[in-house]
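Section 5: illustrative case.
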């Protein structure tokens, strides 16, 4: 993957973080700076570290996967993209404010499962793991900060548009991986 592809991947993976932080920004009214930093740090770290697990797991199966790598990358990105778009239109329940350590770790894990799977793509495309993880983690950190404060300022913007945009980016990366 090129640097541009990694940045697009980081943006698409960070959409979940942005949406979660946007919703938290809408409802959290106290200790905003501290809470936004905690949220951004945890989610950015999880997003940056999860691809390593996917990468290492793929390494042991490398010889079996190489002949199919182009199609595996396509499948992963395509499925994730479609998943983002479908989830954008699902009806979600209102969630209570939760900013404790358990909730932060839960948010980190929930939003980074897609990043874990992206580690497979990073391995199969011979992309620099640490550069990719740094960009993914940093992008997620920044997107959480932006989402958190945007949530407190903009009550009318629908987060589902962001999820659809992330899905479209992942599908575009899927198609690009075939060429």
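Designed sequence:
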């Amino acid at each position: 993957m090129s640097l541009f592809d990694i940045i697009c991947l980081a943006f698409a993976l960070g959409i979940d973080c942005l949406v979660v932080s946007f919703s938290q920004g809408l409802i959290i009214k106290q200790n905003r700076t501290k809470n936004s930093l905690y949220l951004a740090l945890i989610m950015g770290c999880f997003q940056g570290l999860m691809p390593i697990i996917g990468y290492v797991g793929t390494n042991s199966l490398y010889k079996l996967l190489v002949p199919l790598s182009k199609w595996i990358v396509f499948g992963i990105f395509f499925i994730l993209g479609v998943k983002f778009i479908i989830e954008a239109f699902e009806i979600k329940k209102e969630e209570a404010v939760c900013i404790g350590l358990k909730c932060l770790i839960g948010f980190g894990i929930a939003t980074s499962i897609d990043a874990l799977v992206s580690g497979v793509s990073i391995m199969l495309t011979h992309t620099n793991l640490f550069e990719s993880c740094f960009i993914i983690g940093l992008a997620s950190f920044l997107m959480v900060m932006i989402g958190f404060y945007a949530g407190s300022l903009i009550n009318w913007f629908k987060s589902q548009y962001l999820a659809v945009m992330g899905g479209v980016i992942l599908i575009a990366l899927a198609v690009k991986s075939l060429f």
